[in-house]
Amino acid sequence: MRxxxxxxxxxxxxVMQAPGDSKEDASEGFKYGGWMGPHFxxxxxxxxxxxxxxxxxxxxGRKTYNIFAEYWPxxxxxxxxxxxxxxxxxxxxxxxxxxxxxxxxLKNIDELxxxxxxxxxxxxxxxxxxxxxxxxxxxLVDEFWLKIFPITLGTGKKLFxxxxxxxxxxxxxxxxxxxxxxxxxYRRAGKVKTSSML
Length: 198
Description:
Layout: E1 4-11, H1 42-53, E2 58-61, H2 62-71, E3 88-91, E4 103-106, H3 109-116, E5 123-126, H4 129-137, E6 143-149, E7 168-176, E8 182-190
Parallel strand pairs: 1-5, 1-6, 2-3, 3-4
Antiparallel strand pairs: 6-8, 7-8
């Protein structure tokens, strides 16, 4: 069985929309795209470089896939040399003939579950806010590798939306960059336990 790992940039108030560029995702009138740039320092870059180079398989939503497929085939010298060669799975009902090499299209949750239960490399999810909501709803995310930025936006698509199932996690690694970005990786630990304070 493969692990599904969500690799996400979020604000203190949980917004994950358009961290890298103002034109990345302006849906629903979002006007703060590119919010991570001012806080992304050399240490953060080194940590991301390690995580990206360890990627052996990608699982993406259609919008993020389109962004990646437009950029990475022409820019592999910028820190992700293996990205064109590794398997890439994109969840879409409309994508028919993907041109980015080693792409497999998944059409529904049953195909997602079948992929997760198969043998093979772990899969990393970048961005893909709509896909992540589906994965979490069906309890398919094993780890979260979060980069928590020291800002709040008050609006935008959030990683943990209403309807997130109660789940417990264990911190497996953490680091704080000089600019205050927290790199925190969590592994699924089971159901939420409660106790009475009385």
